[in-house]
Design brief:
heterodimer; A: alpha/beta; five-stranded parallel β-sheet; three-stranded parallel β-sheet; B: alpha/beta; FAD/NAD(P)-binding domain; D-Amino Acid Oxidase, Chain A, domain 2; 2 domains; seven-stranded mixed β-sheet; 9 helices
């Protein structure tokens, strides 16, 4: 199993910590899902209050701070440094947003910020598109995890470009890959795992569900199912129908 | 029970505790380090919506259950506008309206009738109408409550007080100033605009995937726009980002808000427990009323009633906790 900067995750599910009805509901969702990583946004939690940060640390999972909402490399780098101080981890989920409406990553700012942060000792989880050339640039910069989007953040559209995601998996057999953003249903998460992805990261689909804990459990089951199916070596699809029970030799009734 | 009760904190929770105890025949003392209600307390910055059904879209069931008594309780001390409330979405976000409808009760869908209810919502094609909801002017409500208490011989005293140095039963209703485990601050920011050419008569909530907003009419062309909800105990004034988001959302609802006068902005912390449900917490001889989160006006009467019931009759309601 591919590890994440030396860390083997107990579950391939990473959950965000925003938009839940309450911290109590969020804690129930984490417990029900078995998620191994919690992402947390720093940007809007600056100030003297530490208690939400304490709740996150109290979840007992790996904390992956992010630079959500940053629109330039410089902004993202500053946020990452604050996050490292606050959560005492070198992990950073790097988001550099390039387009306000689709929240699409800015590929140029992403590579620039990744280079700077890696030089500064960070272990970078870049939120990227499924573009293979960009992925190579990020790996060249020193990223040892890639997080391509499934669809725009918060859209719930699922895996928008299956071809691109499959190609990326084939092109980077040694790099842990995480589908990040755009997942709306457990079936989307299962499909990502069936493709050979190492984990999925989502937030809105769970936090904004009518029953977040139940949806979190459903996603936990889906990633297990998808990973198990991948290990079981799925059949190849074929055009020719092949009966599972041979007809020859059966009694005609 | 004849023992003296002292209430520390003259925000919405403390004042309601005084009212409910006086209904039970007691004359509690009320002490606040800043005196009568004002900008120092988070009650000052509230929207004043009494919207138990809308809040039920995300809040725990206790909020909807108890909140339904709030309009009647407030009407005993202050004018309450009972014209219902509206929930709307822009055409692009119609799915949000369907989802909100599934997760709430007490509403009907209005389309043609909408423009009879609020002629100025002409850009909006469909809404959910919560006929049983109400609103009030929170600052007027606090001062009316203070006046009612004064007429019953209960004056708000100005002075520093902590539960330890007071004899007898203490109700601690100091919000974020109380030393209570598990209490966190959730930052909220608001804007008051004067837009005399816009005529809305009831609260309107705009569902928006990124920037949800509510607008509460305060009369005389004044509108309260609220409110952000940020997991942070940051006390500073409203941020430029939040101001932009609130104003943009209002502008999307009615472009004439762009011409409005910005009368006031505000920011403060809502005290909240992890489930965002308020609690009466008994710790020895101190009864804490706290964690009203964004439901101060909606939940204070019920919370105060449970505190008074416990002190006078020993009953423990569903919001009662022992520490």
């Amino acid at each position: 199993m591919r590890d994440f900067y030396g860390v083997t995750l107990a579950s391939p599910l990473m959950l965000g910590t925003a938009q839940y009805p309450s911290p109590a509901v969020m804690e129930r969702a984490f417990r029900a899902s078995g998620a191994s990583v919690a992402t947390v946004s720093l940007r809007r939690e600056a100030g003297q209050g530490q208690s939400f940060g304490e709740i996150i640390r109290g979840l007992g999972v790996h904390v992956l701070p992010n630079t959500a909402g940053c629109h330039s490399a410089r902004e993202a780098i500053t946020t990452a440094q604050m996050a490292r101080e606050m959560f005492e981890t070198n992990w950073i989920k790097l988001e550099v947003i390039g387009h306000a409406d689709t929240l699409q990553p800015d590929p140029f700012g992403l590579v620039e910020a990744a280079e700077a942060l890696i030089a500064d000792g960070f272990e970078v989880f870049p939120y990227t598109t499924e573009d293979q050339v960009l992925a190579q640039r990020l790996v060249d910069a020193g990223c040892r995890v890639l997080m391509p989007w499934g669809a725009p953040i918060g859209s719930g559209l699922g895996l928008n470009n299956r071809y691109g995601l499959k190609t990326l998996r084939a092109a980077f057999p040694d790099i842990p890959l995480v589908v990040d953003a755009g997942l709306g249903l457990p079936s989307h998460a299962a499909e990502a795992m069936e493709m050979g992805y190492d984990a999925v990261l989502l937030n809105t689909a769970v936090a904004q569900a009518g029953d977040p804990a139940a949806m979190a459990e459903a996603f936990g089951l889906a990633v297990r199912a998808g990973a198990l199916a991948r290990r079981a070596d799925p059949m190849e699809p074929r055009d020719m129908a092949a009966p599972s029970t041979p007809v020859i030799g059966k009694a005609w009734l | 029970m004849t023992e003296q009760v002292t209430i520390i904190g003259a925000g919405v929770a403390g004042l309601w505790a005084a009212y409910m105890l006086s209904e039970a025949g007691l004359t509690p003392r009320v002490i606040d380090r800043n005196g009568p209600p004002g900008a120092h307390g988070c009650s000052w910055w509230a929207g004043g919506m009494l919207a138990p059904f809308c809040e039920g879209a995300v809040a725990e069931p206790e909020i909807t259950a108890h909140g339904q008594q709030a309009a009647r309780a407030w009407a005993r001390v202050t004018p309450v506008t009972r014209r219902g409330s509206l929930v709307v979405a822009l055409e692009r976000d119609r799915g949000e309206l369907a989802r909100f409808a599934r997760r709430t009760t007490g509403h009907e869908t209005v389309s043609d009738g909408l423009h009879q209810l609020e002629p100025d919502l002409r850009e909006v094609k469909q809404a959910l109408f919560f006929a049983e909801e109400a609103h009030l002017d929170p600052r007027a409500a606090l001062s009316d409550l203070v006046e009612v208490l004064a007429a019953r011989g209960i004056e708000v005293e100005t002075g520093e007080a902590t539960p330890d140095e007071i004899k007898g039963t203490v109700i601690d209703a100091r919000g974020m100033a109380a030393d209570l485990p598990g209490l966190r601050g959730v930052r909220g920011e608001m804007v008051v605009l004067r837009a005399p050419e816009i005529a809305l008569t009831r609260p309107v909530r705009l569902l928006h995937p990124r920037h949800p907003l509510y607008i509460v009419p305060r009369g005389d062309g004044l509108y309260m726009l609220g409110a952000t909800q940020i997991e942070s105990a940051d006390w500073r004034a409203i941020s430029a980002r939040s101001l932009l988001e609130l104003l943009s959302a209002a502008y999307a609802l009615d472009p004439r808000f762009a011409e409005a006068e910005v009368v006031e902005t505000g920011a403060d912390l809502r005290p909240a427990f992890s489930d965002n449900v308020p609690r009466v917490v008994r710790r020895g001889r101190v009864l804490h009323l706290n964690g009203l989160f964004r439901h101060g006006y909606l939940m204070a009467p019920a919370l105060a009633q449970q505190a008074a019931d416990y002190l006078t009759r020993g009953t423990k309601g569903d919001l009662f906790h022992e520490d």
